[in-house]
Design the sequence.
């Protein structure tokens, strides 16, 4: 009897769990297959790739459901296989010659929807759009080619966040650029070769974008250019340290010295030199005295005594005035040849 009661209890719990799972599954299916309210109009569109798109997928405009996918068939056009998607659009929505359709990710589980976008112009009504007005689907897993070692160090939540940010950028939403750059930074922090990781990621995004033909190419190029700039900056990081160390600490005293001697931004240097040296000979004489002046400022312990100075056996050479200016006060003696 006890065994029968235990088995009955298990069966009851299993039955309850199955009923709850069935109800939840029904709710999910109902949400996915949410019908379009009111009258609808039928239209078709050709895509080169509709991977992940299914019958009863949503047709959305600015995030709001305006229709459903009713049928997907394969057709041949000019020797190429295309996917012809039949759409049911709620009134008053319709396709026009300016309409653009794109297969986009609804979530990270792979569910897709058809996004309908209208340009500013008022196009003429149509019932069919060719591939020149549609953007195909793409496989997000292609984004991770070559990044598996880094992805192993991330949690599922971080990978999902990175993927969602990448999707936002690839699907043409400019608001996803800042989060995408933040995600790239987190990935780079986990990588041994940051440059190689960013290069691989940008290449993967470029390949995906080339298959989409959308406007995200500008964003990809921006990220590539930013990568080049950061990489170049990393090679001269020590120069930034030197600039911080020697720049302000050196230039501030120099600026004070220049101010103290009377030089201002509006100072006429030519006039100042003309006032100080009325002739070329006076300027040469002043330059001749400079080495002696600096020599007088040197510490006594660092100078060479006269007894230790080297004497010329044949006497000093007679030098031109221009050379004497250079050697004056430098303790350099030019001797006469033998």
Sequence:
């Amino acid at each position: 009897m006890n065994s029968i009661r235990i088995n009955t209890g298990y069966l009851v719990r299993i039955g309850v769990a199955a009923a709850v799972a069935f109800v939840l599954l029904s709710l999910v299916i109902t949400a996915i297959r949410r019908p379009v309210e009111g009258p609808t109009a039928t239209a078709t569109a050709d895509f080169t790739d509709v991977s992940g798109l299914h019958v009863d997928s949503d047709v959305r405009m600015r995030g709001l459901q305006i229709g459903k996918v009713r049928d997907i068939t394969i057709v041949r056009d000019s020797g190429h296989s295309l996917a012809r998607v039949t759409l049911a659009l709620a009134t008053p929505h319709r396709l026009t010659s300016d309409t653009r359709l794109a297969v986009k990710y609804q979530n990270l589980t792979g569910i897709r929807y058809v996004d309908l976008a209208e340009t500013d112009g008022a196009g003429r009504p149509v019932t069919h759009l060719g591939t020149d007005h549609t953007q195909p689907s793409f496989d997000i897993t292609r984004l991770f080619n070559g990044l598996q070692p880094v992805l192993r160090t991330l949690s599922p939540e971080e990978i999902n966040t990175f993927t969602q940010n990448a999707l936002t950028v690839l699907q043409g939403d400019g608001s996803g650029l800042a989060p995408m750059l933040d995600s790239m930074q987190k990935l780079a922090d986990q990588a041994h070769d940051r440059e190689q990781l960013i290069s691989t990621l940008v290449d993967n995004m470029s390949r995906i974008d080339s298959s989409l033909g959308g406007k995200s190419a500008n964003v990809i190029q921006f990220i590539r250019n930013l990568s080049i700039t950061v990489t170049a900056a990393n090679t001269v990081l020590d120069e930034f340290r030197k600039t911080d160390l020697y720049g302000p600490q050196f230039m501030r005293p120099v600026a004070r010295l220049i101010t103290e001697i009377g030089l201002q931004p509006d100072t006429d240097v030519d006039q100042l030199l003309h006032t100080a040296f009325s002739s070329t000979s006076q300027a040469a004489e002043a330059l001749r005295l400079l080495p002696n002046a600096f020599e007088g400022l040197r510490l006594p312990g660092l100078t060479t005594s006269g007894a230790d100075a080297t004497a010329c056996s044949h006497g000093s050479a007679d030098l031109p005035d221009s050379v004497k200016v250079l050697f004056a006060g430098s303790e350099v003696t030019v001797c006469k040849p033998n």
Observations:
- The first helix runs from residue 2 to 32.
- Strands lie at 40-47, 58-61, 64-77, 80-90, 95-96, 99-105, 112-118, 125-126, 128-129, 134-135.
- The two ends are 132 Å apart (CA to CA).
